[in-house]
Each structure stands twice: as structure tokens, then as C-alpha cells.
Amino acid sequence: MRAAQVIPVTLLLAFAANAQVFKAGRCPTPAVQANFDASRYLGKWFEFSRLPTSFQVGQCSTAFYTLKAPGVIEVLNSELLDDGTVNSIVGTAKVKDPAEPAKLEVSFYEDTPPGPYWVLSTDYTGHSLVYGCTDYGLFHMELSWILSREPTLPKETVAELHAILSSIGVSVDKMLTTVQEEGYCSAMGQ
């Protein structure tokens, strides 16, 4: 193997070691929430489960969305780290195309490109299913979150959301359940 081939393979292995979900081929293009209403989506959401990521390592994760301007949402993500500290980051979600308001792009740093944040399903008061995928040539990287307005979700709802993800090829067996126990998460002010 030549040096030019070793570097991309090494980078891919480094990403894989960081628990990102990489798959062969291009990203799927799932249907998103019809008639998505961002104003009903605002407020606090608890992370119920997610695909592994290298940038999210804590528990008790929450997202808080507020409207900054039409088509622009401020994102405040927080998590409780193992050492008891709360890690938070603020970003911006923007609607890419007003004809498809459930397809947002989220950015947390000015010098990095935004990532896709597609709302595949939400009832606004109980659950939200979020999916993001980025193509990298012959591979793609998937992200997904199941969010809830309360720390728990009914098993039937989780099964429905898993079925949506499975239908687009997401390995739901890789989803990590987020700890949201009241005593453990008390440092988060939940």
C-alpha cells in the first residue's frame, strides 16, 4: 500500500475508533416530517437515545431550541460528564430550503461546515426523530437522535421510531440509550 493510500485508511480507522457510524455507499434520502412547524418544535427536549458520536460523551443530554429569527433556531445542547461537570455548546440551526423546513443545517463553530439535522418524525409534544448523514466519497457517516419532551418514552413509540430508521438502513442496534435518571441527572437541573 502506498503512503497516499495509507493516510485516508488511517483517518477512516481513527473515525471508526471514535465510535462514529460509517457505512459504505451514499447517504439515503428519507422522507422528513410533513408540514414541519419550527415554532411548535421549540423548547426543551431530552435525549432518549442516539447513534454513537465522537463529540458527545456524556449522559443526561438535553437540547433547548429558541427562535432567533424566521428560519433560524438557537441550539443549546448540554450533557453531564463523568466527572460531574456540565458540558454545553451553543449553535445555530437554519432551514436550508423553505420548501422543506424539516431539513435544517446545524453549526456550532464558524470555521466548520454545518451538519444536516433532518426531523424525520415529531408529534411536537412527545417525540422527535432526528437524522443526519454526510457523504465522504465511497462512505457516509450517520447520526441520529431520538428525543422526547419527558425523560422517558413508551416502548411502542421507540419501536415505531426504530422502524423508520431501519427502513432507511440505520442499524438501530447501535443506538445508545441515554441515562436520564432524576437522581443521576440532578446536576443538570432537570
Automatic annotation (TrEMBL):
SUPFAM superfamilies: Lipocalins. The keyword Signal applies. It holds the Pfam family Lipocalin_2. GO terms for biological process: brain development; lipid metabolic process; lipid transport; response to reactive oxygen species; tissue regeneration. Residues 37-179 form the Lipocalin/cytosolic fatty-acid binding domain. GO terms for molecular function: lipid binding. Gene3D superfamilies: 2.40.128.20. Residues 1-19 form the signal peptide. InterPro entries: ApoD_vertbrte, ApolipopD, Calycin, Lipocalin_ApoD, Lipocln_cytosolic_FA-bd_dom. The keyword Disulfide bond applies. Keywords: Disulfide bond, Glycoprotein, Lipid-binding, Pyrrolidone carboxylic acid, Secreted, Signal, Transport. Belongs to the calycin superfamily. Lipocalin family. This is Apolipoprotein D.
